[in-house]
Design brief:
CATH class: Alpha Beta
Distance between the termini: 21 Å
Shape: globular
Structural class: alpha+beta
Largest sheet: 4 strands, mixed
Number of helices: 4
Number of domains: 1
CATH topology: Nucleoside Triphosphate Pyrophosphohydrolase
Order of helices and strands: EEEEEHEEEHHH
Oligomer: single chain
Radius of gyration: 14 Å
């Protein structure tokens, strides 16, 4: 399995998504910032921190694991980043756009979302609606 970290950043009722380059495997699709764990990463929080900076130029801290899902050969660790510094912007050749979207807007995007993001929207919606009321349900 290949370990991947996704970073979920929420500002009020909107979530940060990055648009992949047309030349990328997920060409043109909107995704959460993130990527594969590299040999330089001691753990997946380091991966999340590194990928957030590399892809969208944000220096993140206060990461909390929300979910883990498996998709084909990938084990995806989804982290909420509760604190960050900077303004999100495309910070590498793989990212061509940045946007803040509500859950309803993400559901409406359908094929413009990467398929693996689309499949986990119900879980994300649950986390977004219940995290503050029931943080003890999320084990980190």
């Amino acid at each position: 399995m290949i370990d991947v970290a996704w970073i979920v950043i929420r500002k009020q009722s909107r979530f940060l998504l990055a648009q992949r380059s047309p030349n990328d495997k997920a060409g043109g699709a909107w995704v959460f910032p993130g990527g594969k764990k590299d040999s330089i990463d001691n753990n997946l929080i380091q991966t999340a921190r590194r990928e957030l900076l590399e892809e969208v130029g944000l220096k993140g801290s206060d990461f909390h694991q929300l979910l883990q899902i498996s998709q084909n050969k990938y084990r995806i660790w989804i982290f909420a980043c509760l604190k960050w510094i900077g303004q999100p912007q495309p910070n590498c050749n793989d990212i061509v756009g940045i946007g803040w979207f509500t859950l309803q807007e993400m559901y409406a995007m359908k094929e413009n979302l990467a398929p693996y993001v689309n499949t986990m929207l119900p879980e994300l919606a649950y986390c977004a609606q219940h995290y503050k009321a029931h943080p003890e349900e999320w084990k980190w």
